[in-house]
Design brief:
Helix 1 runs parallel beside helix 5 and helix 2 (47-55) packs antiparallel against helix 5 (115-128). It is elongated and about 80 Å long. It starts with a strand and ends with a helix. The longest helix is centred in the C-terminal third of the chain and has 20 residues, at 393-412. It contains 13 helices and 23 strands. Strand 1, helix 1 (14-29) and strand 2 form a beta-alpha-beta unit. With 434 residues, it is of the alpha+beta class. The structure holds flavin-adenine dinucleotide (FAD). Flavin-adenine dinucleotide is lined by residues 10-16, 39-42, 48, 51-53, 57-58, 138-139, 166-168, 171-172, 176-177, 180-181, 353-354, 381-382, 392-395, 398.
Length: 434
């Protein structure tokens, strides 16, 4: 016998718990009582929240804009983000007993420096708003019926008038986000963007590449992605970590999805790394000329480690000390400011922090997050084709889209299954006063 609910949330991660909370709060504000059930395949809830930000959970960023994201179009992403701002996130967690602090980088973390406090607050708020959380209950199929939806799970069948799909992407599959949500969305008529690839993922270099010999080195760099024709597609400045298999660190993680998506259409993409951000071939050449008497390593060592300075000289076949011939000097300047990275691949979804690709926002009504192809279905979080850069942007997307979906699904639950959700003005004003 199927268990009935007014609203079923598939996935009790960041977006699902937030959507369930706002569904319950919106119903309560309207003086209505709705049954809200969140289903999750995981035995232990909230694995991703707990590992986020190295166990501290980078909840949001002080400045959030559509430019911090990729995937669907910037205007579509902006439309959702503006419904629930970083300030709304701070207010939500503050009211839930989790004070946040802003670090120098602009990232916001709980004052406790513990992701556990964030997860506990999310669970407390969802349950407090009337959500019943059922887990482990992996959803294996979903069908639209005359009354709403029939959902098959490994814990038995469920029915609901409205469904919020917040099943995440494919990164860290052992957390429960194994990409099955994409198949559920597709089974209800949605398309998926192509390709779906890891985002915020370390990149691999050929075995034995000289950069892998620098494993453990972390330093500020500038990374530039260009098309085969030389057009600059993406550039970022940030920390890079050399690893025994390639490269990691924020700058590499941020560029990874652009490289992985871009190379599908353009196999001649190039990725270059400038070990001396702010310098170019000509400016470094001038510095090397000025430091000619001290030698190349001594000049480079002013900003780089001795090991890296010597490795660059070796790779450019440039003498580390003494006079450098013009050709060797310019080879060294070119290598230090634009090392070509012969990326062989990525470290995969098991290591990635996010997923690039998913259900395109073009298939979603952005004022409600209701599906345009399957009325009564709402979507939130990483299952959508939106991924943010390092810095708390992925959670902010989960909060904003979860807020819109949860509050709109509640209003829609009062309407027939084929009806459209009303716009979100009432919920928006609730968020800004919460
Ligand atoms: C190591 C790591 C560190 C990160 N650090 C940060 C950070 O500091 N800041 C930041 O902004 N972002 C960070 N992220 C990204 C962030 O965690 C995600 O973008 C965010 O959790 C997405 O929220 P979501 O609710 O859409 O998906 P998820 O958090 O993945 O939740 C989806 C839920 O759905 C459940 N589910 C999936 N399929 C089914 C199914 N078929 N049936 C039932 N349940 C299902 C899963 O078990 C899961 O609980 C990090 C990610 C990783 C992997």
């Amino acid at each position: 016998m199927a268990q009935p609910s007014d609203i079923l949330v598939i996935g009790a991660g960041a977006a699902g718990l937030f959507a369930a909370t706002w569904a319950g709060r919106t119903a309560a504000a309207a003086g209505r009582s709705l049954s809200i059930t969140a289903l999750d395949s995981a035995r232990k809830l909230g694995a991703k929240v707990l590992v986020a930000g190295g166990g501290r959970c980078n909840v949001t960023h002080e400045r959030v804009a559509e430019a911090d994201y990729a995937g669907s179009t910037p205007p579509a992403i902006r439309k959702v983000l503006r419904r629930f701002s970083a300030a709304d996130t701070v207010a939500f967690f503050e009211a839930a007993g989790v004070a946040l602090k802003t670090e120098e980088t602009g990232k916001l973390f709980p004052v406790s420096d513990s992701a556990r406090t964030v997860l506990d607050a999310l669970l407390r708020e969802a349950v407090g708003a009337g959500t019943r959380i059922v887990h482990p209950a992996r959803v294996t199929a979903i069908e639209q019926t005359a009354e709403g939806f029939h959902v098959t799970t490994e814990a038995g069948p469920f029915t609901a008038r409205r469904v919020i799909l917040a099943s995440g992407g494919q990164s860290l599959p052992k957390s429960g986000s194994d990409g099955s949500g994409f198949r559920l969305a597709a089974s209800l008529g949605h398309t998926l963007s192509s390709p779906i690839v890891p985002a915020l993922v370390p990149l691999a270099l050929p075995a034995g590449h000289w950069i892998t010999g620098l494993a453990g080195l972390t330093l500020p760099t500038e990374v530039t992605l260009r098309s085969g024709t030389g057009k600059r597609l993406f550039a970022t400045t940030g920390s890079t970590l050399c690893t025994h298999v390639g490269l990691s660190g924020p700058a590499i993680l941020d560029v990874s999805r652009h490289w992985l998506v871009g190379r599908v259409a353009d196999p001649h993409l190039t990725l270059n790394l400038n070990w001396l951000p702010g310098e170019c071939l000509e400016s470094l050449d001038r510095l090397l000329v000025a430091g000619q008497r001290r030698g190349a390593v001594a000049t480079l060592r002013e900003r780089l480690t001795d090991r890296l300075a010597r490795t660059l000289c070796e790779q450019a076949a440039a003498a580390p000390a003494g006079d450098l011939a013009r050709d060797a000097r310019r080879r060294l300047a070119a290598l230090a400011t634009a090392t070509p990275l012969s990326i062989t691949g990525d470290r995969g979804f098991t290591v990635a922090e996010a997923t690039a690709g998913g259900v395109p926002l073009a298939e979603i009504r952005l004022d409600t997050m209701e599906s345009r192809v399957c009325p009564g279905l709402f979507l939130a979080g990483e299952v959508l084709d939106v991924d943010g850069r390092i810095g708390g942007f992925n959670f902010q997307w989960a909060w904003a889209s979860g807020f819109v979906a949860g509050s709109a699904a509640t209003r829609a639950a009062a309407q027939p299954a084929t009806g459209r959700a009303a716009d979100g003005d009432a919920a928006a004003s609730m968020a800004s006063t919460s």
